[in-house]
Amino acid sequence: MIKLGLILLTICLVDDALGLKCLSCSSHYDQCGAEVKNLYRVAQEKCSSRCFIRIDRRGILTRGCDAGYVFADDPSVPNNGCEFKNDEYWCWCTDSDLCNSVPPNKLFKYNFSKNEQNSGAINDEDNSDSGTTGENDQLKRSAFFST
Q1: Cα dihedral 32→14→78→144 (10° resolution)
Q2: What CATH number is given to the structural domain containing 115?
């Protein structure tokens, strides 16, 4: 009995040490919209990088782990923040398992028309004439769940 308990404890500790757990789904699936009501009905994956939630111009939400994406090792991508990349608006998080279950409000307010000619990086010059920190600049530096 003690051996079985130690084996189970070892499995749990190893499982926790392997990385972050992220939701992995698209809003094409009815359980994976803006609000995920039942976490156990949505696929989950282990992640060695960051969890993400992204939205495209059509309003399709996608959640997952960014390991394997071209920019997964890009040091300019925030661990906990949002940025426009590859014609989609991405928000990344690393602060807890399933941190990509609740999208930040700014994900739904992003103005894609600002980046019509953008190659994928946020253009900090968009608001340079205002004399204040631009919205894109604030989004890039803000924490994932900040208001």
Answers
A1: 50
A2: 2.10.60.10
Q: Which amino acid is at 9?
A: L
Q: pLDDT tens track of the chain, all 147 residues? A: 675 444 444 444 444 456 899 999 999 999 999 989 899 999 999 999 999 999 999 999 999 999 988 888 888 889 999 999 889 999 999 999 999 998 888 888 888 887 764 333 333 333 333 333 334 333 333 334 343
Q: Please report whether residue 27 resides in a domain.
A: yes
Whether 82 is in a domain gets the answer: yes
Q: Is residue 98 part of a domain?
A: yes
Residues in the chain: 147
Number of folded domains that form the chain:
1
Domain that holds residue 83: 20-141
Kindly report the three-state secondary structure assignment for every residue of the chain: CHHHHHHHHHHHHHHHHCCEEEECEECCCCCCCCCCCCHHHCCEEEECCCEEEEEECCCCEEEEECCCCCCCCCCCCCCCEEEEECCEEEEEECCCCCCCCCCCCHHHHCCHHHHCCCCCCCCHHHHHHHCCCCHHHHHHHCCCCCC
